[in-house]
């Protein structure tokens, strides 16, 4: 069958002009190539290293904004296509939020975990990210600035971060919080 492939940004979130990001593509194969597409056009090709390829973009500008996806090729034949990941480049105008987790960084499987993303701004909403995921885990609003996971399992472990924004006439963004590693035993 066709291999399943994944794509994600490292670190996740909106990037400031002049910043950098890495687009990671991975699959369960150890040979072949990944071709990175931006807005439907071929952008770059990389050989697999292990089971992944990493496309680094540094000193980003508005021109780097767009929809990226990976095609996995073996012998010149496209065997699979990833989901699409959006790269957004925006100035940061808000203070950096602080991410915390209760009851702590190491928990037993089945425990109840609460993530808090705190920012000193009256009307900011925040996104919670888990490195390796394409999608945002959750949107945290000022009314509810926490995210519950009622029964954690090993799949909930990983590197988390959050990023906040305000929706006035235009979006204003914060930097991404420091990362927080959750270990599920």
From TrEMBL:
Residues 3-86 form the Ig-like domain. InterPro entries: Ig-like_dom (IPR007110), Ig-like_dom_sf (IPR036179), Ig-like_fold (IPR013783), Ig-like_Receptors_ImmuneReg (IPR050412), Ig_sub (IPR003599), Immunoglobulin_dom (IPR013151). SUPFAM superfamilies: Immunoglobulin. The keyword NAD does not apply. The keyword Disulfide bond applies. It holds the Pfam family ig. Signal peptide: none annotated. Keywords: Disulfide bond, Immunoglobulin domain, Signal. It comes from the Eukaryota. One of its GO terms (biological process) is cell surface receptor signaling pathway. This is IGSF1 protein. The gene is Igsf1.
